[in-house]
Specification:
This protein has four helices and four strands, in the order ββαβααβα. The protein has 106 residues and is α+β, with helices and mostly antiparallel strands. The chain starts with 8 loop residues before the first strand and ends with a helix.
Length: 106
């Protein structure tokens, strides 16, 4: 076999057309699935539902700024940022659990 030209070399060995033949570099680790991601196997994972700040304010009958204050003081769950860093959203299941805990204490 002729030597591989330098422009076709890789630090992981020669570049091949068939990926099945190419060995994995020693820095690649194959990780097992996480138990949490698999679920029970009986049913697909339930999609998370979120509410924007305006809907949380309407749910509790307060101003949108009060939602921020209550979340900062721990009176409401902290928001998540699944869409981006400027879009706070509250997990509906967490709000329901919070309401149940608050109702149990009252």
């Amino acid at each position: 076999m002729p030597p591989t030209p330098p422009d076709q070399c890789s630090p992981y060995g020669p570049i091949t057309r068939d990926r099945a033949e190419a060995p994995l570099p020693s820095t690649v680790a194959v990780l097992p699935e996480r138990q949490r991601d698999r679920g029970s196997g009986d049913e697909p994972p339930k999609p998370r539902r979120y509410l924007r700040k305006k809907r949380v304010a309407e749910r509790y009958g307060i101003h949108e700024r009060s939602v921020d204050r209550k979340a900062a003081s721990g009176q409401l769950p902290k928001p998540h940022y699944p869409v981006g860093p400027r879009v706070p959203m509250w997990d509906l299941d967490e709000l329901d659990a919070h309401d149940r805990r608050a109702g149990a204490m009252a």
